[in-house]
Amino acid sequence: MMERTFAIKNSKGEVVAQVAKTTKALIQNAVLGSGSESTIDVAPGVDCSTILAMVFGLGQAGAHFVKDMANNYMVDPIKDSLADTIVETAGLEGAVDAYMT
């Protein structure tokens, strides 16, 4: 059930909310690569707006973190390597070095 559920605890270690992906979201994620539907159970007496803000914040930060990680460690190095290969193949190292300095 990894990545399907998580609990939010207060400073005393008490579970104040439980967030779970729905079956529909799991199917959409497996088939289409995206599915964001979740159920959020909030304990009585807990400020639900704070819990919702935390859940939305985690979703946004997580999405951007994965995107930035993929760009920084996979896409950008591949682009740089490809550009270097093209320059070397065309024999333009001198022209690029002169332009860069």
The gist of it:
This protein is α+β, with helices and mostly antiparallel strands and 101 residues long.
From the spread of the alpha carbons, the general shape counts as elongated
- How many separate domains? 2
Helical stretch tally: 3
* Overall average pLDDT: 76
Distance between the termini: 54 Å
* Sheet with the most strands, sense and barrel status: 3 strands, antiparallel
Q: Label the structural class.
A: alpha+beta
Query: What level of helicity do the residues show?
Result: 55-70%
Uncertain segments:
none
Radius of gyration: 23 Å
Beta-strand segment tally: 3
Strand order in space, largest sheet? 1-2-3
Topology of this protein?
Layout lengths: L4 E5 L5 E7 L1 H10 L5 E5 L5 H43 L2 H8 L1
Antiparallel strand pairs: 1-2, 2-3
Structure description:
The protein is an alpha+beta fold. The protein folds into two domains: 1-46, no CATH class; 47-101. It has three helices and three strands. Strands 1-2-3 form a three-stranded antiparallel β-sheet. A hairpin with a 5-residue loop joins strand 1 (5-9) and strand 2 (15-21). The chain starts with a strand and ends with a helix. The mean pLDDT is 76.
Spell out the key features of this protein.
101 residues; alpha+beta; three-stranded antiparallel sheet; 3 helices; 3 strands; 60% helix; elongated
